[in-house]
């Protein structure tokens, strides 16, 4: 149960770094070879490509308010910082055109020694996500996508 409490604190802290738009703190949570699967991009590989994604996210959405709803941990008895975690969240984001969107979803992550090695996001309303971005598919410039 200690592992579950630890990951709940970590998840809340991670969403707060998004709300603060603190790119260095966001990137500190990721392993160098991490993968991130996002509906608008597919799989993103490596920290450099992840940083480009989060930079574009912050450019597109100058205002974000993530709210932690629930945390699910595969091994509630794990004492270390390695586990598989599901984080249920809601958000309100405002894009650079001034339109505000509400959505919710779940992020699943494999964490090893306190760093995310693989994460995948599932959105309740992907059409609303596309509308918020203003595109059908987000293209990253960094190799590793």
Structure commentary:
The chain is 32% helix and 40% strand. The protein is α+β, with helices and mostly antiparallel strands. The chain has one domain: Roll (Nuclear Transport Factor 2, Chain: A). Strands 2-1-6-5-4-3 form a 6-stranded mixed beta sheet. The longest helix is centred in the first third of the chain and has 19 residues, at 2-20.
Mean pLDDT, to the nearest integer, reads 92
Task: Please provide the count of β strands.
Answer: 6
What's the number of helices?
4
Share in β-strands: 35-45%
* Sheet of most strands: 6 strands, mixed
Class computed from helices, strands and strand pairing: alpha+beta
Percentage of residues assigned to helices: 25-40%
Overall number of structural domains = 1
Order of helices and strands: HHEEHEEEEH
What separation lies between the terminal Cα atoms? 36 Å
Shape assignment: globular
Question: Architecture, according to CATH?
Answer: Roll
Q: Strand order across the biggest sheet?
A: 2-1-6-5-4-3
Q: Please identify the top-level CATH class.
A: Alpha Beta
* Spans where pLDDT lies below 50 across 5 or more residues: none
Radius of gyration: 15 Å
Briefly note the CATH topology name: Nuclear Transport Factor 2, Chain: A
């Amino acid at each position: 149960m200690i592992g579950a409490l630890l990951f709940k604190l970590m998840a809340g802290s991670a969403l707060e770094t998004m709300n603060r738009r603190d790119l260095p703190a966001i990137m500190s949570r990721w392993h160098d070879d991490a993968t991130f699967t996002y509906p608008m991009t597919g799989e993103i590989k490596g920290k450099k490509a992840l940083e480009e994604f989060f930079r574009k996210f912050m450019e597109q959405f100058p205002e974000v308010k993530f709210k932690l709803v629930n945390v699910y941990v595969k091994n509630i008895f794990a004492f270390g910082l390695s586990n598989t975690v599901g984080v249920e969240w809601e958000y309100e984001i405002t894009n650079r055109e001034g339109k505000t969107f509400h959505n919710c979803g779940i992020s699943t992550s494999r964490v090893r020694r306190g760093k995310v090695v693989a994460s995948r996001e599932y959105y309740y309303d992907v059409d609303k996500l596309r509308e918020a971005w203003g595109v059908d598919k987000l293209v990253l410039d960094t190799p590793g996508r």
